[in-house]
Amino acid sequence: MTSDEEELLRRAIALAAEARAGGNPPFGSLLAGPDGTVLAEERNSSLTDRDITAHPELKLARWAGRELDPATAAATTMYTSCQPCGMCAGAIARSGLGRVVYALSGDQLDELKPPGTTFTDPPSAGPALYAEARVPVEGYYR
Questions:
Q1: What is the Cα Rg of the chain in Å?
Q2: What's phi and psi for 5, nearest 5 deg?
Q3: What is the mean pLDDT of residues 47-68?
Q4: What is the domain count for the chain?
């Protein structure tokens, strides 16, 4: 990692501190262009917005999907204070961002949390009703 990349990652950590100071979970992210120019910054606002999806990574992925053409998005790097959760990772993949650089891993984050505060996946069942479910999807991705 270059010293310029370390500074961008430090800015993401500072955004996390700002989120916490504002009453939100301590997560921050920024999106940088190929030359290191900061294109957009976000902080977690899930508590103040009363929106469980208001993670900074998801907000930046949405922004990139709306504001950047695919080639520009592919040339960006997201710097984030913590490894993106599954929800955010999916949005990042769909937005076509080039890469992600994070400070804390998900496992390191879990080590900092009190026991019993990590999220678990709900029980699920499926696949089911394949013949019916395929009808609206078939041919869409061609």
A1: 17
A2: -65, -40
A3: 98
A4: 1
Active site residues: 57
The beta strand positions in 7-120, using DSSP E, are 28-32, 38-43, 77-82, 99-104
**Percentage of the chain surpassing pLDDT 70?**
100
pLDDT of 121 reads 84
| pLDDT over 90 (residue 116) | no
Backbone angles phi, psi at 92, to 5 degrees: -60, -45
Read off the CATH number of the domain in which 47 is found.
Answer: 3.40.140.10
- Whether residue 142 lies inside any domain: the answer is no
Residue of 65, 66, 46 whose CA lies nearest to 54? 46
Q: What predicted TM-score, i.e. pTM, was given to this entire model?
A: 0.91
In sign, the C-alpha dihedral spanning 123, 126, 129, 130 is positive
Q: How far apart are the first and last CA of the chain?
A: 39
Residue 86 lies in a domain: yes
Asked if residue 140 is part of any domain, the answer here is: no
CA–CA separation, 82 vs 31, rounded Å? 14
Q: Which two tokens stand for residue 5?
A: 């990349």
- Which structural domain, as residue segments, surrounds residue 51? 3-134
- Give the separation between CA 23 and CA 116, rounded to whole angstroms: 22
